[in-house]
Amino acid sequence: MSDHALPRPWVSAAVRSRRRRIAIGLAARYSVLVLTIIITVFPLVWLFLTSLRSSADLFAVPVHIIPESVTISQYINIFRQYSLADYVWNTIIVSLTTVIFVTVLALPCAYAMARFRLPGQKVILSLLLIMRMIPIVALAIPLFAVFSSFDMLDTVWALILTHTAAKLPVAIWLLMGFIQDLPKEVEESAQVDGASILRTLVQIVSPMIAPGLGASAVITFLFTWNDFLIALTLTSSTDAQTLPVGLTNFVTQYGIDWGPMAAAGVLMVIPTIIFVWFAQGLLVKGLVTGAVRG
Amino acid sequence: MAVALPLHPRGRRPRSPLTTRQQGYLLAAPALLIMIAIFVYPLAYSFVMSFFQWDLSARSTTFLGLANYADTLTSPSFDQSLRNQIIFSVVSLTTEVVAGMSIALLLNSKLRGLRIARTLLLIPPMIAPAVVGLNFRWLFNTQYGLFDALLRTAGLPPIPWLSDPNWALASVIIADVWQNTPLLVLLFLAGLQSVPQEPLEAAAVDGASAWRTFWEIILPLLRPVIFVALMLRIIDTFRTFDVVWLMTQGGPGGATTLITVNAYLLAFQSVDFGHAAAVSYIALIISLLLMGALYGVPRLWRTSAA
């Protein structure tokens, strides 16, 4: 800036107006920040408030923004009246088993893709990317037929197998990226020492790509936990139905039982919030792969 | 799927009995087999069945050739769902990218509370779309919902969010925009933070307006991030089902039936798997074409720049 060459009063005026502009800019930025946070959080806060209302308070006209009284009766109700424990249990079993399967299967596959020169590799990797794009409904329709011919409809195994296959492509791409970033020398020296490939993979590679394994596990867990369409098509009773499908049970022909619905919705959201809070970095990494590396 | 990997005795024989190529395939095999069995095979099966008259009860199937596809392309319900899908995809994608970029640009400075905001912004994209759908259905409820209550308090007439066909599609888009814009804000923020400072300072010294700096310096640098964002969102808008199903089930009168909803209804309400398979393949082909176009664009860009 060559302002010092100009007469003084002009400078101070310019500086003043510049300061004012910066102050206005900063105020604008902070208001955008606050507004963004409010819009992001508000619907969820509303869901939470709804879950704490008594049924009388829920159907008050005009709507009470602040609940008149706070009660946990809706939460008790979902377990007593709607046997929500079954849905919660199924969801946990399906999500955790899928995470284990995906990790155990994706790691060696990603290692092979990253470290071996295999004919057909490129084709496989592009097919994996295309699989990520396929609408779930396109898969759900034939799977319904396949699982029904094996008499496996309405079992958690149908869900676990489907989710494993559907989540593998992203996990393989994700882990492959992490393995490619490792220096090859460590693995090579391990193999010179006579370690088998499997041992190298488990004892040497895995610890070094722990963040990648974490990211793939978190992504797999949350997307399995959140799934609605696969469970909706492949299950029909509390034997295997998961929580998101359980939510539709609050929609009856007489209308929607909003109180229990809100309570169940809050239960659905809790793991998400926990993971977002503690594994933010891993999540973002996992979300973007597949698109970036393609 | 127990694929035993031959472990050679440690130290004794440094060379494995298998060639490295075979080892590679063995390592990849379990994952590939499961994907073939549960992903590729069913899809191929339904592709074949999309040329047949296919309902689950009847054992006999009749070969129809392209009739299912022809029916689909001329059916008014598919027409409507395609129209809805295009409006849904274009409007939500545009809103999300423009809003996401504007918010990211405004937040891209050292603001107190930005870290907390980042964490909070990650919550909506990670929440189950089913919960988002039901929650917005509750917010949009005409009698007890918050939005109409606020409108009434402000002395305005309530809006028939989910019962009016035009509003219903808008409501579904609002829910989608609420859920997905934050992800784009985060992506764009990350992109903006890796933009080098020198060209920006040079532009400031030259007295370039903020608007010009954005169009001529920031935007070209952000091209890869925008590309990723578009890819993610195009894929996902064509997969959207849960939010719509829980808000409107495709209604009223098919006003919010997206292609996926159309396929689901055909398969599980009309029990007409042949047509449903045809519809889902058409959806797949459309999104593959879009992807192809999107992949082609940067290449064209590069060759024309070179």
Main traits of this protein?
heterodimer, A: 294 residues, MetI-like fold, 2 domains, two-stranded antiparallel ribbon, 1% strand, B: 306 residues, 14 helices, globular, disordered N terminus
How many runs of DSSP E, i.e. beta strands of chain A? Answer: 2
For the largest interface, the chains and their residue counts are:
A-B, 103 and 101 residues
CA-atom Rg of chain B in angstroms: 25 Å
Extract low-pLDDT stretches of chain B.
1-14
Percent helix among the residues of chain A?
over 70%
Overall, the morphology of chain A is: flat
Widest sheet: strand ordering of chain B:
1-2
What features would you describe in this structure?
The complex is a heterodimer of chains A (294) and B (306). With 294 residues, chain A is an all-alpha fold. Chain A is 75% helix and 1% strand. Chain A contains 14 helices and two strands. In chain A, strands 1-2 form a two-stranded antiparallel ribbon. In chain A, helix 7 packs antiparallel against helix 10 (210-226), helix 8 packs antiparallel against helix 9 and helix 10 crosses helix 14 (280-288). The longest helix of chain A is centred in the first third of the chain and has 44 residues, at 8-51. Chain A is flat and about 75 Å long. In chain B, 70% of the residues lie in helices and 1% in strands. Chain B has helices at 20-49, 67-74, 76-107, 114-121, 123-126, 129-139, 146-153, 165-193, 197-205, 210-221, 223-237, 242-247, 259-268, 273-305, and strands at residues 52-53, 62-63. In chain B, strands 1-2 form a two-stranded antiparallel ribbon. Chain B has a domain at 87-256: Orthogonal Bundle (MetI-like fold). Chain B has 306 residues and is mainly alpha-helical. Classes of the chains: A mainly alpha (294), B mainly alpha (306). At the A-B interface, helix 1, helix 4, helix 5, helix 6 and helix 7 of A face helix 1, helix 3, helix 4, helix 5 and helix 6 of B.
